[in-house]
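Hi R.,

Here's the input for the inosinic acid complex you asked about:
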Amino acid sequence: MHNDLREILLSEAELRDGVRRLGERISADYAGRCITLVGVLKGSVFFLTDLAREIKTDVRMDFTMVSSYSGERSTGVVRMLLDLKESIEGSDVIIVEDIVDSGLTMEYLLQNLKTRRPRSLEVCTLLDKPSRRRSQVAIKYSGFSIPDKFVVGYGLDFNGLYRNLPYIGVLKQEVIEGNKSCR
Ligand code: IMP
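And here is the predicted structure with inosinic acid in place:
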């Protein structure tokens, strides 16, 4: 385990099983259709690439980047930093997110993408922190429900760090307070 972590919340094997289960459900629900997976950069990248390989129907991928976070806590203001490359009009779209926390990011994304008239629009999140919800967004596919702890790894970061950990763990409080970064 990385020295900056207090505990491992989800091991590599648990993540693999969770992603496989989500892939099976999505494959069954969208059999014979083509799915547009919209990955929310940067946190969803590891999850998205693993999930896409577990989906048995046709898939295309596009990406968006939104910003609402600085450090450990949300500012509550969501901005789109990078827009999709392709049109999603008439498409079956699944937004792929690393974690839904307050739900404000997802609420913003759902509202934004809905105006582009996709055929269907659903949410797939690896992690869900329901205790901190401020906006009740409908999540069709959720990998794991987790307690209100700040987690890193498998795409999730703190100041840009720890995304490359193959598991998900809880950061030590002293690392958060020390505001560790790459520089
Ligand atoms: P929300 O708008 O509060 O739902 O926040 C969603 C975004 O906040 C996610 O896409 C993550 O980038 C970030 N986030 C929320 N909780 C955590 C966490 O525990 N670790 C790392 N990032 C988090």
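One thing worth noting: The chain has a mean pLDDT of 94.

Cheers,
M.
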